């Protein structure tokens, strides 16, 4: 793993390794999210390996609420083929040895299927990233689309899409599948808003990957707002698979500067026209295009321009410039587009192999 991508370690993580919690023994530390620590673990009753996410003891009330909410959403999304499986959840009072001092703690935890890694690990090393076949990249992207599709059909938005939240699992037939994980920032949009409107202006996920409406203090809390934000996230996943960086990092650069401008706009009740950002995005996408195979470049660029349009409503599917008569509650349309990209790339590879074989036969 690239040392720049080593997981940040919570102060509590070393003290929890080896601890028995809820019938599971905590093993090696894997990663830290916004408010939870993830470890490998072992089910003490079955010896089966798993992953356990523990709420950081330094949490606040909002962290605890979002951790509980993640468990509820994972339970709602149970048995979805491209969302991480929740195996167990609970809380337990334990005593932790912290530098020789016994500290009583009430720990909340979620137990999930253990992944073999995350998609961002495939792009961490420049050499292995360059060698990663584009067919594999597109299959990983399609798996992520399927996960978001399944979430949207269940009225759940992710709101924090990036390759580090796309896990790799061994599926049927030994094939590697992508499963969406880290639902701590997710939202069940079948329920009313749980926070004041102002708390949605800046979004809930990693600002390095945030859509522009959340950087410029224009985020909303309707179903369409959440869906459009996820569409940007899905487009950014493809950009990340092409370049190693998310769309926002390439097009906007400093999210901090953008957010500062958004705060200033909000203070004077000024709503910036996000369509003015299109030239920046188009220049960024021209850079992205150079990393995409020529066989699919045109279609992929068109798709990225749509999904990552700075104006949220422009990301939605259209037929002849108009919304489709039959709304797509999921992402059927985008799955079809991904299949076309994969098909075009696969057919071209077959043609190349056939023509090379023919040339070899003629040469002999």
From TrEMBL:
Record keywords: ATP-binding, Kinase, Nucleotide-binding, Transferase
Domain Protein kinase: 24-335
Gene Ontology biological process terms, A to Z: regulation of primary metabolic process
GO MF term set: ATP binding; protein serine/threonine kinase activity
Gene3D superfamilies: Transferase(Phosphotransferase) domain 1 (1.10.510.10)
SMART domains named in the record: S_TKc
Record-linked PROSITE patterns: PROTEIN_KINASE_DOM, PROTEIN_KINASE_ST
Xref: Pfam families: Pkinase
The keyword Membrane is assigned to this record: no
Protein's name in the database: Protein kinase domain-containing protein
């Amino acid at each position: 793993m690239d040392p720049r991508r080593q997981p940040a370690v919570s102060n509590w993580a070393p003290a929890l390794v080896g601890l028995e919690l809820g019938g599971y023994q905590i093993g090696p530390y894997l990663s830290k999210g916004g408010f939870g620590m993830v470890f490998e673990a072992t089910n003490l009753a079955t010896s089966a390996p798993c992953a356990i996410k523990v709420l950081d003891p330094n949490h606040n009330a909002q962290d605890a609420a979002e951790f509980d909410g993640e468990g509820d959403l994972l339970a709602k999304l149970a048995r979805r083929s491209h969302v991480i499986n929740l195996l167990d959840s609970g809380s337990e009072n334990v005593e932790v040895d912290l530098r020789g001092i016994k500290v009583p703690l009430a720990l909340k935890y979620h137990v999930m299927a253990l992944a073999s890694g995350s998609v961002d690990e495939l792009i961490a090393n420049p050499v292995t990233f360059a060698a990663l076949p584009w067919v594999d990249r597109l299959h990983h992207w399609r798996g992520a689309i399927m996960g978001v599709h399944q979430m949207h059909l269940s009225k759940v938005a992710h709101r924090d899409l990036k390759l580090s939240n796309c896990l790799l699992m061994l599926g049927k037939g030994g094939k590697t599948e992508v499963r969406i994980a880290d639902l701590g920032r997710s939202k069940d949009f079948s329920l009313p808003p749980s926070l004041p409107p102002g708390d949605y202006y800046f979004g809930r996920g990693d600002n390095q990957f945030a859509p522009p409406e959340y950087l410029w203090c224009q985020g909303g809390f309707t179903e369409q707002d959440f869906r459009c934000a996820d569409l940007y996230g899905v487009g950014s996943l493809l950009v990340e698979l092409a370049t190693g960086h998310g769309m926002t990092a390439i097009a906007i650069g400093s999210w901090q500067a953008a957010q500062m401008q958004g705060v200033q706009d909000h203070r004077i009740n000024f709503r910036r026209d996000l369509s003015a950002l299109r030239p920046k995005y188009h220049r960024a996408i021209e850079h992205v295009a150079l990393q995409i195979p020529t066989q699919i470049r045109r279609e992929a660029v068109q798709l990225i321009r749509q999904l990552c349009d700075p104006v949220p409503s422009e990301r939605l599917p259209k037929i002849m410039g108009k919304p489709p008569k039959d709304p797509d509650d999921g992402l059927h349309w985008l799955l079809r587009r991904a299949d076309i990209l994969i098909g075009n790339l696969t057919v071209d590879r077959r043609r190349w192999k056939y023509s090379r074989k023919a040339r070899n036969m003629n040469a002999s």
